Amino acid sequence: MTYGVGVLNRFYTWCSPKRKLVIKDGIQWCADVFDKFVVNEQSVDVGDVVVRRYTPAKDGQSCSVIHIYCSEKDNVYFITDPGVKRCATFNIRSIRQSFYSRKRNPNTNDVW
């Protein structure tokens, strides 16, 4: 199985489908990109760790919801591609944000 999350990446006119264009704060983003943690038939040892950093969608957000997706294929590019299914959801609560912690991004550590 291929596992990953859906993210926003920069929108590139030469490769991003127009239907995935999202404009936020004047910046063009490509929605629903499948950010892969592990690819179908990839060898993974017990205890291997994948670390990802995510930026909250809104300033001051107290909780982030991260959906994990899976597919039997390894050549998926979007979470909306045929055969991609949501298989888990993480609710990550942020600690109280102060001036010093405002720029921090929630980390996820996925241990296999």
TrEMBL record:
UniProt KW keywords: Stress response
Designated name of the protein: Heat shock 70 kDa protein 12A
Species of origin: Caerostris extrusa (Bark spider)
Encoding gene (name): HSPA12A
